[in-house]
Amino acid sequence: MPAVPSAARGDGDPHLAGLQASDLAKGTPFWIRALWFSFMKRWRLILLLAGGGLGLLLLVVLAGALFIAGRISGKSDAWRSPDVPESRTIAPAEPLEQTESHTCGLLSLSSAYAAYGLSPGNKNLRFRLGVDRAAIPVDSTSTGTLHPDLLRVIVQDGFDYGLVDPAAAGAADRLRDHVNGRQAALLLIRRAETGGLHWVVTDDAADGDVRIVDSLKPEPVREPAGVFLREAVLSIVLLRPREGEAMPDVSAAHRAGVAEMALVRERLKRLDQ
User: Fold this and answer.
1) Residue-wise pLDDT tens digits, 124-179
2) Do 101 and 179 share a domain, yes or no?
3) Domain boundary at 77, 94, 122, which?
4) Pairs from 124-127 (Cβ < 8 Å, separation ≥ 24)
5) What is the pLDDT, as a whole number, of residue 135?
6) What is the CB neighbour count within 10 angstroms for residue 135?
């Protein structure tokens, strides 16, 4: 009998070669074995590719987690003065002129801090809020003040916070009662002029209106609380000096901020309806 060529025997494939002494001895036709192992090789390639894709996904997730951890730890541990907020100073909050597109949150919180007797500069707010660092590394426009950073900073600086859904029953009354108790609140709004998101601060209410301190306007304005909350406000962050000596739960504040960001997205959809 003439010798079977190596390519026909499958000596070049260790899987086919491994069956030469087993299935061949059982009389299995070669073409069946060839089809079977061709099928298995394709599935092996698919599994290898899938495994590679999963590995890439895990690397992306790990890199993202390390990036976020670096952002949080760097800003969270940054220097700040040990000053704590006063119950409330006599002077009302005043607008600070905004000359950069992404600093409305920084300026609104700075106005509120000044009303509580704190120096925004001594609190190193700009760096600690991370307004100049992109939230999405590949998108240079994703700067500004995000809820997780905002809540982390205010609890570190001696405040407690409350989050209120602007569309909830009694939200306008709760906001008015809060500011009439000589406290301030930050509001994330959608600007009627541009549709863009924008932080403002409020610290007073009268005759159903709330006083709005806006870094894009030279003087405070008054807005009807109910209508303003219903048509423009996406998030309400109530500020109040913390009582007692309890250590702030920075991680809980950060998680609450992440959750509030998700709710803001849902409220945006509601405003568009």
Assistant:
1) 999 999 999 887 665 666 789 999 999 999 999 999 999 999 999 999 999 999 99
2) yes
3) 77
4) 124/78, 124/79, 124/80, 124/81, 125/153, 127/75, 127/78
5) 73
6) 16
